[in-house]
Design a protein that fits this description.
The protein has about 210 residues and is α/β, with parallel strands linked by helices. The chain folds into two domains: about 1-45 and about 100-205, Ribosomal protein L4/L1 (Ribosomal Protein L4, Chain: A); about 50-95, no CATH class. The protein is built from seven helices and six strands. The chain has a six-stranded mixed beta sheet. Strand 4 (about 150-155), helix 5 (about 160-165) and strand 5 (about 170-175) form a beta-alpha-beta unit. The longest helix is centred in the middle third of the chain and has 17 residues, at about 100-120.
Length: about 210
Amino acid sequence: MQVAVKNMQGQEVGTVELSDAIFAAEVNTSLMHQALVRQLANKRLGTHKTKTRSETRGGGAKPWRQKGTGRARQGSIRAPHWKGGGVVFAPRPRSYRKQMPRKMRRAALRSALSLKAGAEQIVVLDGLQLEQPRTRSVVEMLAALNTGRNTLLLLPETNPNVELSVRNLPNVKILRVNYLNIRDLLGFETLIMLQQSLTVIESFLADGRKETEE
């Protein structure tokens, strides 16, 4: 698969060959869904907690005697139906973490990248250098590249000037290519990557190096 390589002004300066094993793989929708659910579940803290009847303060004495008052019998003011009482089936701290084999995670990434490539939503840049942080330069670049409603920018390494220029743009996210994940691939319409990022992706999904979890 041939893709045009563009510069920051949106001009084509060459072409690059995308690996069919990564960018033209069979799209497995159910696998992508499983990977997305796993990532969202692993981001949950699971620190939710409310008090049960035994954990609430007070309520040791019987509110009134059992018989002769004309009212319903009660044993404690901390029963669940009382204001300030305990919670029935209260949520407890727990782990929502899900496991998924590495081969399946990488296959899900290949499916997402193949979707992007098939929809022509991948833009390859020959380089991205800014002498100083300047948001207008990034805005002009995105306009020249004719990106969609939101953009994911993959960098091969840390670039402070670019990162500072992008952080004020609500529809653009910068991501180190080592942190490539299914949520961002599916959540952003246009994927912009440098040629160095493309090289890292192809080696990352081909060799046995362990990816970095977001």
